[in-house]
Amino acid sequence: MKVNKHYAELEESYLFSTIAHKVADYQAAHPDKDIIRLGIGDVTLPLAKSVVKALHEASEEQGHKETFHGYIPSEQGYPFLREAIQKYYAGRGVELDTAEIFISDGAKSDLGNLLDLFDVDNTVLVPDPVYPVYVDDNVMAGRRIAYMPANADNGFLPMPNDSLKGDIVYLCSPNNPTGATYTVDQLKVWVDWAKAHKAVILFDAAYECFVSEPGLARSIFEVEGAKECAIEVCSFSKIAGFTGTRCGYTVVPQALEREGMSLNKMWLRRQTTKFNGVAYIVQRAAAAVFTEEGMKEIQENLDYYRRNAAVIGAALDKAGVWYCGGKNSPYIWLKCPGNMGSWQFFDWLLETAGVVGTPGEGFGACGEGYFRLTAFGDADRTKEAADRILAAIKTLPSGC
Ligand code: MLT
Question: What is the pTM of this model?
Answer without folding.
Answer: 0.96
